[in-house]
What we know:
Elements: E1 14-18, E2 21-22, E3 32-36, E4 41-45, E5 51-55, E6 60-68, H1 73-87, E7 92-98, E8 104-114, E9 126-138
Antiparallel strand pairs: 1-2, 1-7, 3-6, 4-5, 6-9, 7-8, 8-9
Amino acid sequence: MANTRVTTYNSKKVTCSCGSHIVTGFADDSFITIEQSGDGVSVVSGADGELARSIDPSELFSIKITVQQQSRSNAFFTKMYYADKDCEKGTFSVNIKDLLGKDQFTADVAWVTKLANKTKGKAQNNMEWTLAAHGEIKEG
């Protein structure tokens, strides 16, 4: 019998904390997207074909967190957005972890970049919050 590798993913085992707030009420499909800002490692080719690489030192990330419109997390993100606009006190840490895997994102400082769009319809809708964060991804 061959050795068969079986892995498991469970969305309930993905945790997201923003400061002391635990994000709840995630959307039913994709609910967290972490994207590195900046250029990463770019390359320029000279006229003679010589290559020069540039490494972007930025550790800035864009995080999109999508929750249901009735999630308590909407109030948290709204409060932090206005705390930042009104008195520059809207920053918080972020910790996103897949408890069954080895993926983890941590940031000492993050903030809400703008309010989520509000959509009303026959059924509940989702709200997508965009955060900017200075952090790092740890994999495997």
